[in-house]
């Protein structure tokens, strides 16, 4: 039983195939056996394309960080996310979708719901926030942790979480112990896959872009709380830093960053536990 089936089971949603489907699967083999031939195992249905949900942070009435030169985070990350999606969908064979493709506001819970409804295999939220200090610059990646890895990550999470609360799993009405066990089993795979994605993307991207000091961090980000989807947040830079703002204002630089992230996303998709 995979992590989604465990979550669905915890929520009381049936995960077994209907009986009609079982009958159809076995009918050809039974017919061949009656004819004296050797039964053939039923063919497997082709696996649907894997889906990556890219989430451009902020949007609409929420501009995100605003640089000293008037650069809006919501515009920078939308541009990068759209280019990432374009390149990744063309080169990987995976399906790539965006939580928003225009200047619209979506609260954090809804971003998570969009990914869950689409049954995404990986969720990446793209940002270019303000850092706790103006000297901080470079690309970094974050995964979910109730306790932040450091004060820097905690500060980033606090300002990100202003847009809305987290989204857990509704296990109301279920036996508390059973629900906790099932959700925990599914979440273990989710956490492992998210950590793998974070490490792979940072190690690969670091060959071509400047990284933040200690670029792999964790904190209690509301947008990363889907228990059934490996999720990470990528800071493409910090608009609070003059050099990063100058870089992110440049369309060619944004395309380059998007291309590098799409390349590393392709590597993640082709490796366990996503392959």
Description:
This protein is of the alpha/beta class. The chain has one domain: 3-Layer(aba) Sandwich (Aminopeptidase), CATH 3.40.630. It is 44% helix and 13% strand. It is built from eight helices and six strands, in the order ααβαβαββααββαα. The protein has a six-stranded mixed beta sheet, sandwiched between helices. Helix 3 (73-92) links the parallel strand 1 and strand 2. It is globular, with a radius of gyration of 21 Å.
Question: Main attributes?
Answer:
Aminopeptidase, alpha/beta, single chain, 275 residues, 8 helices, 6 strands, 44% helix
Summary, kept brief:
This protein is of the alpha/beta class and 275 residues long. 44% of the residues lie in helices and 13% in strands. It has eight helices and six strands.
Q: Layout of SSEs?
A:
Elements lengths: L2 H8 L8 H16 L16 E6 L16 H20 L2 E4 L9 H10 L4 E6 L11 E6 L6 H10 L15 H30 L5 E9 L11 E5 L6 H8 L1 H19 L6
Parallel strand pairs: 1-2, 1-3, 3-6, 4-5
Antiparallel strand pairs: 4-6
Helix pairs in contact: 1-6, 3-8, 6-8
* Number of extended strands: 6
Instruction: Label the CATH architecture.
Output: 3-Layer(aba) Sandwich
Helix content: 40-55%
Uncertain regions spanning at least 5 consecutive residues: 8-35, 164-174
Give the strand order of the largest sheet, numbering strands 1, 2, ... along the chain.
2-1-3-6-4-5
CATH topology: Aminopeptidase
**Count of runs of 4 or more consecutive helical residues:** 8
Global mean pLDDT:
82
């Amino acid at each position: 039983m995979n992590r989604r089936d465990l979550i669905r089971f915890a929520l009381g949603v049936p995960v077994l195939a209907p009986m009609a489907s079982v009958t159809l699967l076995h009918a050809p083999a039974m017919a061949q056996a009656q004819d004296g031939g050797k039964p053939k195992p039923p063919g497997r249905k082709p696996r649907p394309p894997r889906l990556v949900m890219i989430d451009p942070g902020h949007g609409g009435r929420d501009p995100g960080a605003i640089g000293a030169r008037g650069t809006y985070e919501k515009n920078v990350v939308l541009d990068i996310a759209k280019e990432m999606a374009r390149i990744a969908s063309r080169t990987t064979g995976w399906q790539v979708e965006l939580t928003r493709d225009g200047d619209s506001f979506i609260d954090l819970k809804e971003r998570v719901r969009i990914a869950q409804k689409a049954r995404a295999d990986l969720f990446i939220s793209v940002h270019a926030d303000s850092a706790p200090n103006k000297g901080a610059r470079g690309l970094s990646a974050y995964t979910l942790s109730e306790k932040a890895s450091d004060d820097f990550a905690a500060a980033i999470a606090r300002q990100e979480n202003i847009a809305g609360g987290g989204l857990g799993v509704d296990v109301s009405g279920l036996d508390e112990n059973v629900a906790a066990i099932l959700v925990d089993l599914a979440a273990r795979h989710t956490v492992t896959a998210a950590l793998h994605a974070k490490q792979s993307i940072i190690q690969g991207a670091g060959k071509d872009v400047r990284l933040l000091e200690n670029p792999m961090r964790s904190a209690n980000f509301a947008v990363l709380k889907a228990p059934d989807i490996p999720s990470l947040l990528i800071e493409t830079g910090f608009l609070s830093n003059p050099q990063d703002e100058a870089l992110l204002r440049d369309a060619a630089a944004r395309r380059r960053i998007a291309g590098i992230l799409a390349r590393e996303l392709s590597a993640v998709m082709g490796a366990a536990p996503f392959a």
